[in-house]
Amino acid sequence: MVAFLKYSLIRMALFVPLFILFALLQVGWVLAVVFAGLIAFAISYLFFQKQRDAATAAMRERFSGRAKPIRTAGEVEDAEAEDGLVEQNPDIAVNNDKRPGSK
């Protein structure tokens, strides 16, 4: 995920100065966005292939279904507490397939 953020920051670092340049040249806001976006895309496509490939690999891994779920520290702590209670009380059945409020 770090590679994706790094590549996104590179693209943003290319886009923002170009946008400001075109805005100062008074080409209009819409054209400034379009021109800056196209030029930033072209530069990043031509010169940042290694970063783009790393970002693509990171996104492929995240959405492949093999990646570990991203959990907050609180969620991990809650899951560990729940696992501990289930292990201490094996006679209690836990059904996680039910939605809250359904019977």
TrEMBL record:
Amino acid composition bias (Acidic residues), ranges on this chain: 75-85
Coiled coil ranges: none
Keyword set, alphabetical order: Membrane, Transmembrane, Transmembrane helix
Spans through the membrane: 7-24, 30-48
InterPro entries: DUF4229
UniProt key word Endoplasmic reticulum: no
Protein name: DUF4229 domain-containing protein
Superkingdom of the organism of origin: Bacteria
Region (Disordered): 70-103
